[in-house]
Amino acid sequence: MTDKTFADFALEQPIQDALARANFLKPTEIQAQAIQPQLDGRDILGLAQTGTGKTAAFALPILHHILQMPGRAAPGTARALILAPTRELAVQILDEFRRFAGGARVSTCLVLGGVSRNVQIRNLGRGVDVVVATPGRLLDLVDDRKLRLDEVRFVVLDEADRMLDMGFVQPVRRIVSMLHPRRQSAMFSATMPSEVSGLAGSFLNNPVRVEVAPQSTVVTKIEQTAELMDGTAKRARLAELMTSEGMERAIVFARTKRGADRVAQNLEKDGIKAEAIHGNKAQNARQRALNNFRHGTVKVLVATDIAARGIDVPGISHVINYDLPDEPENYVHRIGRTARNGAEGIAITLCAPDEVKKMRAVEKITGETLLPRGVAGVEPKGGRGNRRGGNGGGNGGAAKPAGGGANKARRPNSRRSKPARANAA
């Protein structure tokens, strides 16, 4: 853990005051390594797992530079542009910028689809210090000449690997081609596939590379378990988990949009308040569901992978993988919604026999054995294994059936070593 404090960066006073109010004293590893080079004008290539404080790592130096700039942005232009793959992540980033600005006169604008363009157009027409955007709506407004990008001096591409997964690479390249040639750039990604590496090569100028955790690793304070069962048994098991001791607030991940709706509807039928969030829902509906989840009106949010990196809600005690993800890396981002900001969390995967191959892919990238080694995708329903080599684990035999005493969602082992707490924005 770094010995640095935020005071060591000598940030503008409004930012220091905002950090003090939030009780942010010591930076996380990604913040400690990335902030100073950006204050010095360097480009950054940051690799870090979810929940490590990446937003503050780029927001604080950008705000510092903007507060030192004279005057204000010209009409129809922006000084800083942050690109995010999902609407939820864009909203979260903008909230953090506003919090860290500490009441200073920094104008911001959220540019995303699913809502009316009128407010966005009106705000952009005045000139904006910080625009946080998803690529599609941003290009719509640029093409309609509501925004010019040639005055952008600071640009961040957040969750670059997710941008690739969602087919945004070409739109991002087009956006980058319109920016001021003497800009400062940053790219943050949890993984670095070859396509993202190629984008970084064309996007960044002699960047400082910052990597604070091995790619595709999970937070050590998440207790992971997997349960092998027939797909028809998942609904009953999920309802059982949702009413078990210690289940405070949970995200349930489904593979498809229709599946997410069906899981949420079944939970409601089983007497458990739940809402679904996915790409087919209007932005207002998605934000309403997220706010209801954040404020405790509903205890269960059912999501697809589009939301896996855009949900930052305190107090998520459990993540349930109702379906295994198609891409094993998404497992890491899913379970990263719990155990944030120094807390502990539990991740439970309900694995059908036809999903065992996907489970093995997850085990390969995480380095954890979550199902017994003898399981090959043809076991009867009800088997269970966990990374501690519990029921049926470690001997190469079939998983034992889940017994009647398996109703509790267990807390993480209190004897596990706990890393130092850090304020991850």
What features would you describe in this structure?
The chain is an alpha/beta fold and 425 residues long. It has two domains: 6-211, P-loop containing nucleotide triphosphate hydrolases (Rossmann fold); 222-386, 3-Layer(aba) Sandwich (Rossmann fold), CATH 3.40.50. Helices cover 34% and strands 16% of the residues. It has 14 helices and 14 strands. The chain has a seven-stranded parallel β-sheet, with helices on both faces. Helix 3 packs across helix 4 (87-101). The protein is globular.
In short:
The protein has 425 residues and is α/β, with parallel strands linked by helices. It has 2 domains: 6-211, Rossmann fold (3-Layer(aba) Sandwich); 222-386, P-loop containing nucleotide triphosphate hydrolases (Rossmann fold), CATH 3.40.50.
The level of helicity is 25-40%
- The CATH architecture classification of the largest domain is 3-Layer(aba) Sandwich
The CATH superfamily of the largest domain appears as P-loop containing nucleotide triphosphate hydrolases
Question: Strand order within the widest sheet?
Answer: 3-4-2-5-6-1-7
Number of domains: 2
Count of individual beta strands: 14
Whole-number average pLDDT?
84
Radius of gyration using CA atoms only: 22 Å
Proportion of β residues?
Answer: 15-25%
User: What's the helix count?
Assistant: 14
Q: Stretches where pLDDT falls below 50 for ≥5 residues?
A: 378-425
* Main β sheet profile: 7 strands, parallel
